[in-house]
Design a protein that fits this description.
single chain, mainly alpha, Unconventional myosin-Vb, coiled coil
Length: about 150
């Protein structure tokens, strides 16, 4: 079983490696074709008059800039979509913060009662007690009386 597992892994790696090599060969072939096209264009421009060479160079630059501009427009669109998504998330989080702040402005006695209820729930869930007790100063007489009884 162990040898079969290793053999299967080796075959998977070999297959991945062969696919990667094939992809790299295709990329090299595409680059060779592009280089040949550029060489042909360069040789053609050398045969042109100086004015025609300048015009051809300008056309090449215009084409390059146009392609770059299209790429930048795509990037801008993606960034704008991401910005909208982040703004929506920010609104949601701001609403949560406002709700939290509103809950913090409850009447102090009501908040204490609410926090005490939450503490009890948390203390029941926790299993690791370390011998410490958290309480409000104004609850100390009640706590002492309960401890004595």
């Amino acid at each position: 079983p162990f040898l079969r597992l290793l053999e299967a892994q080796l075959q998977d790696q070999r297959r991945e490696h062969e696919e990667e090599v094939e992809a790299l060969k295709n990329e090299v072939d595409a680059m060779k074709e592009e280089m040949e096209k550029q060489q042909q264009a360069f040789l053609q421009t050398l045969q042109l008059s100086p004015e025609a060479q300048v015009e051809f160079g300008l056309q090449q630059e215009i084409t390059r800039l146009t392609n770059e501009n299209l790429d930048l427009k795509e990037l801008l669109e993606r960034l704008e979509k991401n910005e909208k998504k982040l703004k929506k998330q920010l609104k949601i989080y701001m609403k949560k913060v406002q709700d939290f702040e509103a809950s913090q402005t409850m009447v102090p006695a009501e908040r204490r009662r609410h926090e005490r209820n939450m503490q009890v729930a948390v203390q029941r869930k926790e299993k690791d007690f370390q011998g410490m007790l958290e309480y409000y100063k104004e609850d100390e007489p009640l706590l002492i009386r309960n401890l004595i009884t």
